[in-house]
Amino acid sequence: MKSSKKATSMKFEIIFENNKSESISAKNIYEAFQKSKEKEIDFMDVKYFRPAKIYRIFKINNVSKKHIANFFRIIAFNLKISNNLPQILEQMYQNSSALSDPLKNYYPLIKELIEHGFTLSEILAKLDILDNLSLLSLRIAEKSEHIKSSKNSKDLSEQILEISENLYEQEEYKNTINNIMIKPKFLMAALLAFIIMIIVFLVPQFSYLFDNDMNLMPDSLKLLLIVSNSIKYNYIYYILGIIILFIAFAILNKNDGYLYVKQRYLLESKNGLYKTRINYRILYYMLSMLRSGSKINEIFDFFSKNFDLIYLRKEFERMTKMLNEGETLHNVLDSSHIFLDDVKTILITGYEAENLAEIIENVLSLYKRDLKRRLDKFVNSIEPIMTIIMGLVIMLILLMVFKPMYDSMTSIIS
């Protein structure tokens, strides 16, 4: 019995505000929280409370944006009926399955912390399962009672539902792009494995036709035979090379310099899908901050510290500095390539008319439909292109492999 419990337990790490850490073994995060209370750990002193790094790397008990979005959606609908959030969380815990809902064991933890006076945004920040910009939107939603006198204020449940829809949009975009690339990647891997098998096992058979005499073989077969022997006797090094290549790409994708160049290229394109999506996100989060009474320079300053894209952080830092130095919004926006032309027009017109929040709110639904249309168009156009590219690659590889065999047969016949 003990061994089964040990097999199902996992590590949780607690990072404190002073950056000291402590590790706890438990079956789930709520049990880890209970054990932390037994150790008299005050949640006020906790910076992050989450599964250990190794579990996050392998996405064990991983909480995606889609799960968080669904969590917010259920809360939003229930808040229309009852304002009792702890009771809503209790019902969600009773009605959810741990297999389909990685957040199931978070519900009693969140419920208990809310009953102890923590806000939902404070809890999700410490549990490290929501990005800073979504946390900002949630904090603004929690203050909706305070800003009800504003014409831009909304019911708490409606604002939480908006957060949910935005998270769904982010996850849907990511999944759509990933799904487009899965088929070509799988086909290329299968084709590569097939070609390697031919080179390693079939090519040497052709060498017997020439009694393994390299001088009698055509040049194309000689080259392929050298490749075949190299793979056969050095396959360990090739496998290690592939692993090192994967690790190098993984490290590169975490490198700020590489990410900056990549994001800059994508965002400085004239009118791409990626740029449209980022502009939609900027408008969405800007609207959230405008509702709370923030000014443009405060919004840009917040973006410079909290946006998840390094290039955007650098750009907003530069634009904030320009605004603080007295530059007009028109000149600031013109100095950057991250905004679409119509978004620049919306921001400048709304700012000068002093009804920016209202204008952004009216155009966001149009942008969402446009983004969906562009995404569908991208998917429909990329699949035929990928098919053509795959066909050309397959023809090239087959030509490289089978031409030496054809040359061999021709040489023997002649």
Describe how the helices and strands are arranged.
Blueprint: H1 2-8, E1 10-16, E2 21-26, H2 29-38, E3 46-51, H3 53-57, H4 65-79, H5 85-95, H6 106-115, H7 120-126, H8 132-142, H9 156-207, H10 219-252, H11 256-267, H12 273-291, H13 296-306, H14 310-324, H15 329-334, H16 341-353, H17 356-413
Antiparallel strand pairs: 1-2, 1-3
Main location: membrane
Membrane topology: Multi-pass membrane protein
Keywords: Cell membrane, Membrane, Transmembrane, Transmembrane helix
From the spread of the alpha carbons, the general shape counts as globular
Overall pLDDT confidence:
83
Q: Radius of gyration, rounded? A: 28 Å
% residues in beta strands: under 5%
Structural category is mainly alpha
The span between the termini is 75 Å
Low-confidence stretches: 1-7, 145-153
Query: How many beta strands in the DSSP annotation?
Result: 3
Query: In this structure, how is the largest beta sheet organized?
Result: 3 strands, antiparallel
Strand order within the widest beta sheet = 2-1-3
Order of SSEs, N→C?
HEEHEHHHHHHHHHHHHHHH
Number of domains: 2
- DSSP helical segment count: 17
In which range does the helix fraction lie? Answer: over 70%
